[in-house]
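Sanity check record (used in CI):
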Amino acid sequence: MGSRRGGGPTGRGGPEGDVTRGTTNPNRLRRMDRWIAATHAPALRRHDGPPVAVDLGYGAAPWTAVELLARLRRERADARVVGVEIDPERVAAAQPYARDGLAFVRGGFEVPVAGRPLLIRAANVLRQYDEPRVWPVWERLCGRLAEDGLLVEGTCDEIGRRHVWVALGPEGPRTVTFAARLGSLERPSDLAERLPKALIHRNVPGEPVHAFLRDFDAAWAAAAPYAPLSARQRWTRAVRALTGNWPVVDGPRRWRQGEVTVAWRALAPRD
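Expected output for Class I SAM-dependent methyltransferase:
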C-alpha cells in the first residue's frame, strides 16, 4: 500500500480506534450499498461458504447494518453481516435487531470476527481522523480481508445525497467513486466536501483530485445543453467527456445511476 505512515490506530489490549459521532439515518448508505452489490456480486456468488460482511462503525443505531444485509442477500441468500462498534452502549442498543445472519459486536479496526470477511464497509468512520492516521488504518483493514475481499471506505452527507468512497483490495487502493442525487448538485465539485479523509485536504491546486474536479466541472458546463433533458443526461455526457483524459473504469450503466468511478492511481495524493 506504499510508504505513507503516520500515527496508527489507538488502543492497546482493546478495540482499536476512536468513538465516532454516531450520526446515522435510515437509507443513508444506499448509494454505496447499491454500488457494492453491483460490483462485488461476482465475488459474493463464487465465495466458498457464507460470505461475511462487516459494517464497521455503524453508529448510534443499527439501520445501516440491517440494510446492508438485505441488499447483500439479494445477491447471495446466505450472506452474513456483523456490525462492529467500539462503543459498548451502541452494541447493547443494537442487540434487539440481531437475527439469523446479523450480529453486533464490540470492536474496532482489529475487526473481531472469525475468519476473513469478504467485505468491510467503513462509512463516515475515518472523517474525524488526521490524514496520516488513515493509511495505517487502511493497511490494518486490508490485512483482514479475504483473498478476494473488498474494503469500501468513504463519506456521505447525513441523508445520503452525496457520497465519495475509496475501494481497496488486500493489495491496497483500487478506485474512487463519486455518487450523488443529481438534482442536488449545482456542479460536480460540490462533492469535494464529501471526499474521504485521504483526499479531502488534497483538493488544492497541484494535486490530482483537484485537477479531476476542475475538469469535471468544465465537462459539466460544456454539457449544459443536455440539462433540459435531465440532470442524468447531463451527468452522463460530462462523464463521457472525462474519459478522454481520466481513467474512468465504469460505463454508462453506472453513470446513469449518478456515479463515476476512477482508478485510484489517477487521484492518489502526491508525496
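The beta strands are 52-56, 80-85, 102-106, 119-123, 150-156, 162-169, 172-180, 259-263. If this sentence no longer matches the regenerated C-alpha cells, the check is flagged for review.
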